[in-house]
From TrEMBL:
The lineage of its organism: Eukaryota, Fungi, Dikarya, Ascomycota, Pezizomycotina. One of its GO terms (biological process) is proteolysis. Binds 1 Ca(2+) ion per subunit. Ca(2+) binds at residues 635-636, 654, 656. PANTHER family: PROTEASE S8 TRIPEPTIDYL PEPTIDASE I CLN2, SERINE PROTEASE AORO, PUTATIVE (AFU_ORTHOLOGUE AFUA_6G10250)-RELATED. It comes from Coniella lustricola. This is Putative protease S8 tripeptidyl peptidase I.
Length: 677
C-alpha cells in the first residue's frame, strides 16, 4: 500500500515510442522528462482526439516562504494584527502567480495559435485551461502523446515521456498536463465503465473508534444520575463510563443554557467520510443523557460530491455517532454542520486521499491550486468526478460550494508514509490558508501510539506498521501539518475520580493495542510557535532513543527511531477512553482520539460564541496562543504511547509528544481568548 503510492512516478520498464516526430527548435528545451519511459503508456493517441490541456503557472515562490510569517501575524497573541484574518480574495492574490508570469505565458499561447477566447484562466489565477487536438498539442509542446489502452476499469491514462517549452517560458510554467503526468481520459465514450476494484485501498483510519464493552440496554431513569440496566452512573463512575457530566467536571464547564440564543454563523463543522450518523441513535442518546436536547436535533447538511446521510440505525457508524454525541452536550443550542464527503464508491475506499475533495468544496481556488509540483487533486490518489460508476456522483467536482465554519473537527487520517510528501505539503498549505481566513481546524492524532496499525489493519499482522525495518516510528497525517491543532487522548485511570489527574490513553484492548498517537513528523520541520516547547522537552526529558534529522530515517546509520527536528505531535489532548454513546441502538463505550478532537473543538466553538457576544471574531489558528499560554491546560504527566516494539514516549511535565500541552481548563481558556482582540 505504502510502496504503491510512493513509487508511482519511478516505475522502471521498457517501452517503445520516445522518438519525436518533429524537430525541436533551438529556442526550446525539455521542460519535463521521465528518467524512464512511463510503463503504462504505449499506444499513440489519434491526432483528432481533444485533450483537456492545463498549463500550471509557477506560483509565487516567495508566498510559500512567507506563509508561516503571514499566519503568525494574524495568530500570534503578541502580534498587533492578531485576529485580522484575510479574505479569500487576499489569499488568492498572495499565493497566486505574479502578473509577469500570467502575461508571459498568455502571450506564448497566443503566438502559438491558441486564441484567447479558447483559454480559461482559473479563479485562483494558477492555471490556463483549453482544449486542443492531439495534433495541436503535439506541435505546441514538441512531443507525442500515448495512452495505456486501459478502458474498462477507469479510462485511459494519456501522457508523454517528455515535452519542450520555449526557454523564456520555462521559469513561468510549473508543468503541463497531460504531459509527464498523465491525464485520465475516457477515449471511448461509448465503452461501459465497470466498477473498478479499489486500487489504492484507503488506509484504515487511525482514528476509527472501536466498539467497546456493551452496556446493558433498558435505560429508565435519569436525573443527576443515570440508571442504565441497573447501573447507577454518577460522577463516581466516570472511570468506567464517561458521560457528558464527566467531561464537564474534567474540564470545568457547564452545559450551555438550552434556551439561549446563539449566533447564526457559528455552527461547529464536523467532517465525516464513509461513516454515517443515524438520527435514531442521536434521539436515543438525547433521551437518555441530555433530555433538554429535543429529538430530531440534527446537523446542517453540507454534503460534498454526492455524499449522503443519515442512514438507518442498523447501518450507523461509530465515528459519526460518536462525534455528534460528544459535541451536542458541549455546544447545544449551538448547531453543528456535517461535511459528509464523497460518493459511496470513493467514501468506502475507492481513493487513498481523504481530504482534498473536502478542501475543494470549502475553497474553490484549491481545486486547481499548484504548489509542490501538484496542481489540483491528484487523479491517482483523490476521487475523480464525475464518477461514471453505477451510483457514482455524476456532477462536476464541487469547488468552493460551502463557507467553512469557524471550527472544523476531523477524526480521520492516515500515516505520512501512505501518501507522497509533496501531496501532503500542498494539502498542509491549504490548512494554513484556512487558518489565515479565521478557521480553526482540529484533528485526532491517531490511536496507534508512535507506530502504525500492524499491517495496516486492526489485526496482529506480521508488522507493527512502522517504518524502515519495521522499527522507526510512523507519524500520522494530516496531523503532522503544523497549521492545524492536533488532539491526542487521555484517560481516567480505573479507580480514579474526575478530579484526579488524567493520564495518556493507553490500553491493551482485545485485538488492538490502543494508545494516543504522537511523535515527530518526517515531513514538516518544527514550526516557530513550537520551537521553545520542543527544546524544553528535549532539554529536560530527553528520550533515550537514537534519532535522525530531516526525516532521513532510511540512511540513519545510528538506527535512529524518530526525527529530531520534526513538527511535534500532538498539540493538546482530551479524554478518549470509555465514552458513553449510542450506536446502532446500543448504549456503548467508545475509545479513541476520535473522541478527543470533537471535545476540544466543541470547547473552542463555545469560546468563539462568547467572543461573538462581545463583538469579537473567530480565532483561526490557535496554536501560537496555546503554546504561549501553557497555564490554560491541565498538564498530563503520566503514561506512554507505545508502538514499534517500544514503550513510545512518556508524558512528562510541559509539552510532550504524547499529550501535547495537556487537557483544557475551560475557564482559563475562555478568559485567555476573551482577553485577545
Ligand atoms: C445512585 O447512586 C447515588 C449515590 O451513589 C445515590 O444518591 C442515588 O440515589 C442512586 N440512584 C439510584 C436511582 O439508585
Ligand atoms: C472551575 O471554574 C471556576 C470558574 O468558573 C473556578 O472558580 C473554580 O475554581 C474551577 N474549579 C477547578 C477545580 O478548577
Ligand atoms: C425553554 O423553552 C421551552 C420551549 O420553548 C420551554 O418549555 C421552557 O420552559 C424554556 N425553559 C427555560 C428555562 O426558559
Ligand atoms: C458571522 O461571522 C462573521 C465572522 O466570522 C461576523 O463578521 C458576522 O458579523 C457574523 N454574522 C452574524 C449574523 O452573526
Ligand atoms: C425520542 O426518541 C427516542 C428514540 O427513538 C424515543 O425513545 C423517545 O420516546 C423520543 N422522545 C420523544 C419526546 O419523542
Ligand atoms: C518538482 O519537479 C521538478 C522536476 O519535475 C524537480 O526538479 C523539483 O525538485 C520538484 N520540486 C518539488 C518541490 O518537489
Ligand atoms: C499491555 O501488555 C503488555 C504485555 O502484556 C504489558 O507489558 C503492558 O503493560 C500492557 N499495557 C497496558 C496499558 O496495560
Ligand atoms: C499488544 O502489545 C503487546 C506488547 O505490549 C503484544 O504482545 C500484543 O501482541 C499486542 N496485541 C495486539 C493485538 O497487537
Ligand atoms: C542522508 O542523511 C543526510 C543527513 O541528514 C542528508 O543530508 C542526506 O541527504 C541523506 N541522504 C539520502 C540519500 O537521503
Amino acid at each position: 500500500m505504502h510502496v504503491g503510492v510512493l513509487t508511482f512516478v519511478h516505475i522502471a520498464a521498457t517501452l517503445a515510442g520516445t522518438a519525436l516526430g518533429l524537430a525541436v527548435p533551438h529556442t526550446h528545451a525539455v521542460h519535463e522528462r521521465r528518467r524512464v519511459p512511463h510503463p503504462r503508456i504505449n499506444q499513440r493517441v489519434s491526432a483528432d482526439v481533444l485533450l483537456p490541456m492545463r498549463v500550471g503557472l509557477k506560483a509565487n515562490a516567495e508566498a510559500l516562504r512567507s506563509a508561516e510569517d503571514w499566519l503568525m501575524e494574524v495568530s500570534h497573541p503578541s502580534s498587533p494584527k492578531f485576529g485580522q484574518h484575510w479574505t479569500s480574495a487576499e489569499v488568492i492574490e498572495a499565493f497566486g502567480p505574479s502578473s509577469e508570469t500570467i502575461e508571459t505565458v498568455a502571450a506564448w499561447l497566443g503566438e502559438s495559435g491558441i486564441a484567447k477566447e479558447r483559454i480559461t484562466h482559473s479563479d485562483n489565477k494558477g492555471w490556463f485551461a483549453f482544449d486542443a487536438t492531439v495534433e495541436e498539442a503535439e506541435r505546441l509542446l514538441h512531443t507525442e502523446f500515448f495512452h495505456d489502452g486501459i478502458e474498462e476499469d477507469r479510462g485511459s491514462m494519456v501522457g508523454c515521456n517528455e515535452y519542450h517549452l520555449p526557454k523564456h517560458i520555462q521559469d513561468h510554467v510549473d508543468y503541463i498536463t497531460p504531459g509527464v503526468r498523465g491525464t485520465l481520459m475516457d477515449l471511448h465514450p461509448s465503452s461501459q465503465w465497470k466498477r473498478a476494484a479499489a486500487e489504492g485501498k484507503r488506509a484504515t483510519s487511525p482514528s476509527t473508534p472501536r466498539h467497546g464493552k456493551l452496556m446493558p440496554k433498558g435505560a429508565k431513569l435519569r436525573n443527576v444520575d443515570v440508571v442504565v440496566g441497573g447501573l447507577n452512573l454518577t460522577l463516581d463512575t466516570c472511570d468506567e463510563y464517561v458521560l457528558p457530566e464527566c467531561i464537564q467536571a474534567l474540564y470545568n464547564f457547564t452545559a450551555p443554557e438550552p434556551n439561549s440564543t446563539v449566533s447564526a454563523n457559528n455552527s461547529l463543522g464536523i467532517f465525516e467520510e464513509g461513516d454515517f450518523y443515524a438520527q435514531d441513535d442521536f434521539d436515543t442518546f438525547f433521551t437518555l443523557l441530555t433530555p433538554y436536547i429535543p429529538n430530531g436535533t440534527h446537523p446542517i447538511h453540507d454534503f460534498v460530491d454526492g455524499a449522503k446521510a443519515p442512514v438507518v440505525q442498523a447501518l450507523a457508524g461509530g465515528e459519526s455517532d460518536l462525534d455528534f454525541e460528544l459535541a451536542y452536550p458541549i455546544i447545544y443550542p449551538q448547531t453543528t454542520t456535517l461535511y459528509q464527503t464523497d460518493d459511496l464508491y470513493y467514501a468506502e475506499g475507492g481513493a487513498s486521499g481523504i481530504f482534498n475533495t473536502f478542501l475543494d468544496a470549502l475553497d474553490g481556488s484549491y481545486c486547481t491550486y499548484s504548489a509542490y509540483n501538484e496542481t489540483g487533486d491528484d487523479p491517482t490518489l483523490d476521487p475523480v468526478y464525475p464518477d461514471p460508476r453505477p451510483g457514482g456522483y455524476k456532477g462536476e467536482l464541487e469547488c468552493g460550494v460551502y463557507e467553512p465554519t469557524n471550527v472544523i473537527t476531523i477524526s480521520y487520517g492516515v500515516y505520512e508514509n501512505d501518501l507522497p510528501y509533496y501531496y501532503q505539503e500542498r494539502q498542509c498549505n491549504e490548512f494554513l490558508k484556512l487558518g489565515l481566513q479565521g478557521v480553526s481546524i482540529f484533528v485526532a492524532s491517531g490511536d496507534t501510539g508512535v507506530g502504525g496499525y500492524p499491517d495496516g489493519t486492526y489485526g496482529d499482522g506480521p508488522a507493527y506498521g512502522c517504518l524502515r525495518d519495521d522499527d522507526v516510528f510512523a507519524p500520522t497525517q494530516p496531523n503532522s501539518c503544523p497549521w492545524l491543532t492536533n488532539v491526542g487522548a487521555t484517560q481516567i485511570n480505573s479507580g480514579s475520580s474526575v478530579y484526579d489527574a488524567e493520564v495518556a490513553a493507553d490500553q491493551n484492548l482485545s485485538g488492538f493495542n490502543y494508545s494516543s498517537s504522537g511523535g515527530f513528523s518526517n515531513i514538516f520541520g518544527i514550526p516557530s510557535y513550537q520551537t521553545d516547547a520542543i527544546a524544553t522537552y528535549f532539554a529536560d526529558h530527553d528520550p533515550s532513543y537514537p534519532y535522525y534529522y530531516d526525516g532521513n530515517y532510511l540512511n540513519a546509520t545510528n538506527g535512529g527511531l524518530y526525527n529530531r527536528n520534526g513538527r511535534g505531535i500532538p498539540d493538546v489532548a482530551a479524554n478518549g477512553l470509555n465514552l458513553a454513546v449510542v450506536v446502532e441502538g446500543d448504549f456503548t463505550l467508545e475509545d479513541g482520539t476520535s473522541a478527543s478532537s470533537p471535545i476540544f473543538a466543541s470547547l473552542i466553538n463555545r469560546i468563539i460564541e462568547e467572543r461573538i457576544k462581545v463583538g469579537k471574531g473567530s480565532l483561526g489558528f490557535i496554536n501560537p496562543t496555546l503554546y504561549a499560554n501553557p497555564q490554560v491546560f491541565h498538564d498530563i504527566t503520566a503514561g506512554y504511547n507505545p508502538g514499534c516494539g517500544t514503550l513510545g514516549f512518556e508524558a512528562v511535565s510541559g509539552w510532550d509528544p504524547v499529550t501535547g500541552l495537556g487537557t483544557p481548563d475551560y475557564p482559563q481558556l475562555l478568559e485567555l481568548f476573551l482577553g485577545l482582540p
